[in-house]
Amino acid sequence: METWQTILKDSITTSEDLKKHLGCDFIELPDVINQFPVRINSYILNQIRLHGHPIRAQYVPDVQEIQDTTCIPDPLGEEDLSKTPNLVHKYPDRVLFLVTGQCSAFCRFCTRKRKVGTERMAISKKAIDRSIEYIRSNPTIREVLISGGDPLHLPDSTIDRILTKLRSIPSVEIIRIGSRMPSSLPMRVTPQLVRMLSSHHPLYINTHFNHPAELTKESIRACTMLADAGIPVGCQTVLLRGINDNSKILAELFCKLLRIRVKPYYLFQGDLTRGTNHFRTTTKCGIQIMQELYGHISGMAIPIYALDAPGGKGKIPLTPNYLLQSGRDLVFRNFRGEVCSYPEPVDSF
């Protein structure tokens, strides 16, 4: 059986690789890769061959990436909110801690597309330690989200070291790890990794599935191992034009995730990230999809549809408007479109 390191080593990273394995031959291909690196590991390559467009479009470079004149490099204002080069302090009680600039595969719609996989996101041990000291010196920080890149790209020993240092800070109550490894390289989730992670409870993992085709026997096994170890797993799906902008596709994805004990957590509207404009849908599309989900699948299977506001202004929930009238009676439509009413308490007027 191949190790995850071997699978990762056997990755497509050049235009020549793309031509050889996937037949990509558009003239601008080297220009796209020079600006936005490519990495497609052999597991993902196999999924592209099996399932085609829904996987291919997420990982294979497209000339539209360098034709994007609408979006901006840092849409969430992370650079302006960074207290150290790799620590973003946007919300009062939690921080985003970037521990690596590498991933097992580079998503073409990545929020940090401007720097992931490049030397602009080379994160040293010294930088990690400096960020940990910032967290230690700010006792209002009770939650740390570890991200990157993909934190599980790091060796077990490095992850353990980071988690141990964070757990030594009395004010840190919750640690979350954001990783796409359960879907992009599920072999990374080994018994050794799971044992180590479970020694740092309370620990949560948010992973990333965008299409039902990504739920393979390998990815299901990875998620099951994490859940069996008492690690709650959530999923942050991105709404992607031409890939999953359809309520039937998303209903299937969310119900299948719930079946393997992965809670659909967020459905994100696409960020205004330079090079990703061709993936963005309208918010009207997303709200319509949510309206087609509410009441038709379990509430447990329905994520929050949210837009991460430009400029680092935070996440904004976007929901269908069921309210028709407020006052002594609340008048609204239900998921079937039926008009209903609810009497407010009399003493509130």
**What is the alpha-carbon Rg in Å?**
21 Å
So how many helices?
Answer: 12
- Structurally, the number of domains stands at 2
Poorly predicted tracts of residues: none
Portion in beta strands: 15-25%
Mean pLDDT score, rounded? 97
Could you give the count of β-strands? 15
CATH class of the largest domain: Alpha Beta
Query: CATH topology of the largest domain, what is it called?
Result: TIM Barrel
> Helical amount among residues, as a percent range?
25-40%
Strand order of the largest sheet: 3-4-5-6-7-8-9-10-11-12
> Which homologous superfamily in CATH is the superfamily of the largest domain?
Aldolase class I
Order of helices and strands: HEHHEHHEEEHEHEHHEHEHEHEEEEE
Query: Which CATH architecture of the largest domain?
Result: Alpha-Beta Barrel
The shape is globular
What structural class do you assign from the helix and strand content?
A: alpha/beta
Major beta sheet summary: 10 strands, mixed
Cα distance spanning the termini = 69 Å
